[in-house]
Structure formats: structure tokens, C-alpha cells
Amino acid sequence: MSKRQLNRRQRWRIEKVQNERLARAQRKQAQQDDDVADQLGDEQAGLITAHYGSKVEVESLLDGSRQRCHFRANLAQLVVGDRVLWQPAQSSGDGVVVATDERTSVLCRPDNYGKLKPVAANVDRMLIVFAPAPVPSSQLLDRYLVAAELSGITPVLVLNKADLIDDVLRPHFDELSAIYHDLGYPLLEASAADAHGLSALRDALVGHTCVFVGQSGVGKSSLVNVLLPDAELATNVLSDVSGLGQHTTTTARLFHLPDGGNLIDSPGIREFGLWHIDEDELLRGYRELAPLAGHCRFRNCSHLHEPGCALTGAVEAGDISAERLENYYRIRETLDETARQRYDRSDND
Ligand SMILES: Nc1nc2c(ncn2[C@@H]2O[C@H](COP(=O)(O)OP(=O)(O)OP(=O)(O)O)[C@@H](O)[C@H]2O)c(=O)[nH]1
Ligand SMILES: [Zn+2]
Question: Where is the EngC GTPase domain (predicted)?
């Protein structure tokens, strides 16, 4: 028997044992749910504000209090930002999440096994942060923009560390900003260091559920720290009250913005990327290229060298930015690589 078959069979057995174990745990949980049912309050609306492995923190939409909850085994995976129906615990112990609302959007990332897992729900603003340092890449900005477009989340570009833009750098940043401004993307300049542009940034966030994304070192944490006053950060301490401990690892956490709205933060969201998309979706994520899809002379046009290509034609006519199309090519190449790696892995294991 080949190594590959043996591995498959072993894997199958392990999976079977795991499934049996899971079913037992779920039966036990259901029993416990019934046992505590008479100690629970009435069903009410809530919001998931943190996630800790098998438990979640739920905030009451009635009085803003937060409580640790477990959730019914039949519920789909809950994530921070989910709106739920739940029953608070009357005395000590955990509350129970009994139902979830439909999501308006969901952000996903792959787990350790490469399977896509949701990390945040109902986000409606993506703040894409870039800065003079580390040196920005329009390709990376495009990746985030495509991800936002495909998830139905409004992107806002934030050029942080504006204090570092001198006369020498200024023309370069004006040029970069113009590309996105012309496409209709909102773009703000800010500085977490000298508080420049922060009121415009606050205005862009107010009333929305937001995430900050961007390269490491562009100043996301610095901006979040300025935007959330001490009172808000103190909500972290609440998790201690509910017995979760300050050092419990969370996948994500939701903070309230002082003027209304929420901010969801997590390392997983910061690394948010284009995990699962194919070439057609990539094109759809480029708002100026999407309407040109299907207008090339050849149906299987690669948009590289064919005559009558709507995309290269639009660049030649000066209707769309050559840099954006160039980025599209580069990102498309990486999609091929990802697909190939996936294929190689599945072939070898
Ligand atoms: N000059 C200047 N420096 C800033 C500004 N904002 C942040 N920094 C500095 O940039 C560095 C990185 O900031 P962080 O807030 O840690 O960046 P981040 O994007 O959260 O990085 P990761 O946590 O790695 O994703 C720190 O040394 C900050 O002090 C700014 O507006 N101006
Ligand atoms: Zn074409």
C-alpha cells in the first residue's frame, strides 16, 4: 500500500473518531443547555463583540452590558459583528446565543489548513491605510480595493504619516492619489503623530462598522489608538469581569467609536487578502475594468496582446490608468501561482 493511501485511510479514521467525539460533545452541550434553560432570561437582541474559541462575548442591545455566552450547536459559526438573539444568564454562568441574523458582509481568511473561515461580519467600511514609509505599493492598494469591492464593503483610502510628506515626496503622492481619486474612491490624508486630518477620518467612520487594513508599519494601531479614547479601550477590561481573562486570545474584537459606529480589530483582519478569487472575479473587483469585460474582440482574450482588446484599448485611449491594468496583470499572475500551489499540494499529499 502506498504512503498516500495509508495517509488517506489514517486521515479517514481520525476524522471518524473526531466526528464521533464532536457528536458526543454536542449531545452533552444540548443536555446542559436544557439544564440551564430555566436560569436564563428572555430572548433579546445582541451583538457579538469578541470570540474566544468555544465561547463568545455578547453585548445586549437593550442596556449595553456584555456577557460571556456559549451557543447552540446547530448555529453556523459565529463571528465578531454578528447580530444575534440570545438569552442572558440570570445569575452566574453563561448566557446562550440561540439564533443569528443574516449578514450584510463577511470577511474571511484561511485557517491553518487553508480552509476559509469567517472572522468578522457586517463590516461596511474598509479603511485601507498606506504611508510614505513603508514605501507604498499601488498593487497592494489594488488588492485591498478588489477585496473590498467583491465583499460589498465601501473602501476609504487613508494616507497616514502625512507629516512625513515633504516637497520632494509630494508630487509622487499627488500622482498616486489622483489615480484613486479619479476612480471615485474617497481618500484622506492623516497623521496619527500630529493629529492632522483626524476629524475627517472620524467623519468617515461615524455610524459604520469599520476595519483598518494595510501593510505592517503604516500606522494602523497608532490610528486606532487615537480614535478610541481611554473609555473605549477600557471595554477590554470587561472581559476580565466576565471571567475570560485579559490574556485570552481572541480572533477579533469590536470596539464602539465615541461618535457612533464600531471598529473591529484583529490580526486576522489586518492580513485580509484575496484568498479565494479567480480571474473573472479579479476583473469584477476593478471598478473601471469590470464594465469592459466581454467587450474584447476575442472571447478568450488574455488582455495582453490581442487586437481589439477592450482593456488595452481603454488604456491607449487614456480612459483608464496604465498602472491599474499593470497591477491587474501582476495580481492575476499571483492567482495562477496560488492555484498551482494548491494543485501541487493536492497532488502530493
Ligand atoms: N511620523 C509618523 N509616524 C507614525 C505615524 N503613525 C504611526 N507612526 C509610526 O509608525 C510605526 C508603525 O506604527 P503602527 O501603528 O505600529 O503600525 P501598524 O500598521 O499598526 O503595524 P502592524 O501592527 O505591524 O500592522 C510606529 O513607530 C509609529 O510610531 C504618523 O502619522 N507619523
Ligand atoms: Zn481583452
Answer: 121-270
